[in-house]
Design brief:
Blueprint (H helix, E strand, L loop, with lengths): L10 E5 L1 H4 L10 H14 L4 E5 L6 H10 L2 H24 L4 E4 L6 E3 L2 E3 L3 H9 L3 E5 L1 E5 L4 E4 L1 H11 L4 E6 L14 E2 L1 H6 L13 H16 L3 E5 L5 H7 L6 E4 L2
Parallel strand pairs: 1-2, 1-9, 2-6, 3-6, 4-7, 9-11, 10-12
Antiparallel strand pairs: 4-5, 7-8, 11-12
Helix pairs in contact: 2-4, 2-9, 3-4, 6-8
The chain binds adenosine-5'-triphosphate and magnesium ion.
């Protein structure tokens, strides 16, 4: 793990594409939700926040086309679409008076045979030191063997959390947490639960594995790095503030090792 010189605790928050966009459509943003979440971030005023967002309808359907065609133009369409969503998020934050900058993985991250090699530390560190929220997103990145590879917002969360030894990690989606087989939110999820429960991907087009891959990544983060993460419903008002403030009454799934 790299060393950094940021004072104070570091939080990593991902707002899923299921919240910011309508995943049943193509390139349909939920602008009022983006604005509401930006306001909640400003209200909670976290000292060091690394923000990640998913691609939703600005990335998954486009990446699906690329994965079939393997054509450069489809990779570019995917990147351009998710960049558009990223700009909506960054500009909503700046409109609320919050300093924020876009960090596009395509320009900073590569993969080697599908294994992602991250190089985002310096940009994140310098942004945080200046009180700026770096805003990362799921993206399509260059691979040294195989054209392009998809890096998910969920993978970026795990990366940022371990590199910056985050003290609070949250993933907001459009559901209250991880449901067990009878539809009840699992309040505390462990590696054993992941093996036992029949956790599925997503109801929508999701090229990065939906809920299943999310929990698989998070149990590893908890087991290997002792960093726990909470999955909560960011489509519900006030939950982002509750997460950032560490309120006990936030309903969700805590993923532990
Ligand atoms: N056991 C489960 N518990 C909760 N949600 C589940 C479960 N199995 C599948 N899901 C689906 O996972 C979805 C959330 O994952 P999804 O990847 O679609 O959202 P996201 O990560 O917010 O989007 P994006 O990848 O665009 O950021 C929910 O909308 C739900 O349909
Ligand atoms: Mg997803």
């Amino acid at each position: 793990m790299n060393k950094h010189s940021i004072a104070g605790e570091i939080y990593v928050l991902k707002i899923g594409g299921s919240v910011l966009t309508d995943k049943g459509e193509i390139r349909k943003a939920r602008k009022a939700t983006i604005k509401r979440i930006s306001k909640e971030i400003v209200q909670a005023a976290p000292k060091n926040l690394i923000l990640v967002h998913g691609a939703g309808s600005f990335g998954h359907p486009q990446a699906k086309v690329y994965l079939k065609s393997r054509e450069l133009k489809d990779a570019l369409i995917t990147h351009e679409a998710v960049k558009e969503l990223n700009w909506l998020v960054v500009s909503a934050l700046t409109d609320c008076g919050q300093k924020a900058i876009p960090l596009h993985p395509l320009s900073a991250v590569v993969s080697k045979g599908g294994k992602i090699v991250y190089k985002l530390n310096d940009q994140i560190e310098l942004a945080l030191k200046q009180g700026i929220i770096p805003v990362l997103h799921g993206d399509i990145i260059l691979d040294d063997e195989d054209g392009f590879c998809i890096v998910s917002g969920d993978q970026l969360v795990v990366y940022a959390a371990k590199e910056f030894k985050a003290s609070r990690v949250g993933l907001g989606t459009d559901v209250d947490g991880v449901f067990d087989d009878s539809g009840v939110v699992i309040r505390n999820l462990t590696l054993q639960d992941v093996e036992k429960q029949n956790i599925k991907g997503s109801e929508h087009v999701d090229v990065t594995g939906g809920m299943k891959e999310k929990v698989e990544l998070l149990v590893q983060l908890a087991a290997r790095y002792k960093i726990r993460a909470v999955l909560f419903n960011a489509a519900e008002e006030s939950n982002v503030v509750k997460f950032l403030r560490g309120d006990d009454d936030l309903v969700g799934t805590v993923v532990t090792g």
